Fold these 3 entries.
Entry 1:
Amino acid sequence: MRLGKYLAHSGVASRRAAEAMIRDGRVTVAGKIVLDPALDVNEQCVVKADGRPLGGLQMHVVYALNKPLGVLSTAKDTHGRPTVVSLIADTLAGTGERSRLYPVGRLDADSTGLILLSNDGALAHRLTHPSFEVQKTYRARVGGGSVGEQALRRLREGVSLEDGTTAPARVRRVGSDVLELTIHEGRNRQVRRMCEAMGHPVRELERVAFGPLKLGDLAPGAYRRLSEREVERLRGSNGGQRLAR
């Protein structure tokens, strides 16, 4: 395994931060400073970061969390506001699980619903990089009156925004003012901007599915660890997969 990846999987830092540590001369292998993040290492190597030996590879975990309103999609906040990671910190401390969890993707503070937390950088990359086209489904309560067929058609064909036309969305009306939209691009506040462009500003937004994984009956603020089978389904998710309903 490459040294940069080894540090990330050992819980030292993210892959990018680990590679920066290596280039800064803060990592040694067998007592010698190594500056190449691509150096091959294994668990038999004596690897130290800032003089401290690593404990070996940590087990990858993935949690599903129903993010409540006002909670930030980040690991830490300098102003002490609640974050998705802080919601499950007590559980991790209680089990002794050595995990550097971080959110996979983001939900705005004023949005709710399904968000994943993991220490698996490779999985996070696969689920969030646009090239994999992993689908995410949202339920939006909108203003501007009842949503008509013309607005639905435009959403399905692609909406012109300031950063370009969106890819076609899968949209269905589940109430006179409630839409269910599935997208795969993940632009900043994309669903809100698409609906705003149609004259239907979003009043409430909830993510109800991430790839093959559904929010289900998980209560706001509640979370659960995914099974190995669920994680494998996430690893295989892409734009061609049947949408969760």
Note: Residues 240-245 have pLDDT under 50 and may be disordered.
Entry 2:
Amino acid sequence: MRWLTRFTGPVLAYLWSGWGAMASLCLLLAAWEAVSLAWGALVLPDPTTTFASLHQLLVHGTAWQELATTGRRAMGGLLLALLVGSAAGLAAGLSMTASMMARPLVTVLLGTPPIAWLVLAMLWFGARDGTPVFTAFIACFPVVFVGALQGTRTLDHHLKDMARSFRLPWAMRLTDVYLPHVLSYLFPAWINALGTAWKVTVMAELLSSADGVGAALAVSRSQLDLATTLAWISAVVLTLLAVECLLLGPLKPEVERRREVAA
């Protein structure tokens, strides 16, 4: 039960601190309402109309199906980026030569617009799942790679020497010395990659797919239906916030605590 107490404490503290996020969302809604009143519904429908359209999409089941399709593609590309990017970044961080060779490649990947990768993916994979999955993967990979690389390169050498001098078992070195420090760099990269995966996937679906949230946005755009367009955008944002706050957010205090303990 001791591990449960150590874990639930930071989680409860994180949930208690959520009032700041709620306040910022309320301010955003207030600004949205003000712009709608100032410019009219033809320019920006008010939040009530938008969420009414979202409610209709949820009631009829359309939103759930399209969100599930987009989520499957986004999470597929994200998981590939997490696995490949984390492993490659950790491996490159162990060698100064590999680190120096990898930096120009990462710069190229970060500097290439996702739309360019999307065009290539459309030529390679066509209107299949491979197009949004590949685009999400290639957009998230350099973000995760850099996080893993920096975490490995900035590991305190004194901690390594101390672990060797005390002859700590390799498993203990990994879980109590190396991993907490690397995770403090990897975890923010993972959160950043999560948002990137969803944005890029929706963009890829908009241009290449017949289903998913991006395809639904293309239909609402062609019909000049601003309320439904904003409803789909709100659905994606709310889903992303739910994934981040409910799954990744509670882990952040634990990651920070382990880093402080290791330090």
Note: The longest helix spans residues 170-208.
Entry 3:
Amino acid sequence: MKKLVLLGLLLLSAGLQAAEPGAEQRGLAIAREADRRDTGWQNQASEMRMILRNKQGDESTRRIHNKSLEVDGDGDKALIVFDHPRDVKGTAFLSFTHATRPDDQWLYLPALKRVKRISSRNKSGPFMGSEFAFEDISSQEVEKYRYHYLRDETLDGHDSFVIERYPEYEHSGYTRQIVWLDKTMYQPLKIEFYDRKNVLLKTLSYRGYRHYLNQYWRPDEMFMVNHQTGKSTTLKWSNYRFATGLTNRDFDQSSLKRAK
């Protein structure tokens, strides 16, 4: 009888394993759920300090304000404006994220009084001297990647999914990224970026999440370290505001020159 019970349990276990989705399907399902939970915020604004550190630990700080607009059926729109120091004041960056085609991005340089379009082949370049690339700045639409579930893991006391994602964009500066996603918030806690040689390039850590409108989680701080250069960039966010009445007009190319 014990042998029959044991055999039955083994067959049940095998059946459950066979019914489980594959690693690719599970990774995609986790990404879709994270996207679903962060949908519906319409538009938001915030302030930010960008702290740049070189290999020797010397720092420089920039003050920035940001606006974002949620777009149905496509990626988000974002406008980033530099307020301080004087040498970058008035510099503005506009990004239209797309799910299945290259993002549209423009940079306004007040010293030259012209708008520069960022080439679709140059999104791996550094954004304003930081350790964030232009492709890191755009919204992370689900369709931008292929996914692979790796494991469950506890990170700094947070139960997390660990998934691997591979950029669909052919000119990406990364071969893959490993993401630790909090199981409660469905927000990233850490991302490892691997370069075109599949060597660890950077690690991004998220800290100090807060809950807004009883639904949306936003971090107070994002810390990006470049393991190959020893440089790092910290983004410190504040004053998040939602449903502020922003429209498409606030995100057209002319908004770059009038941004203040």
Note: The first helix runs from residue 2 to 19.
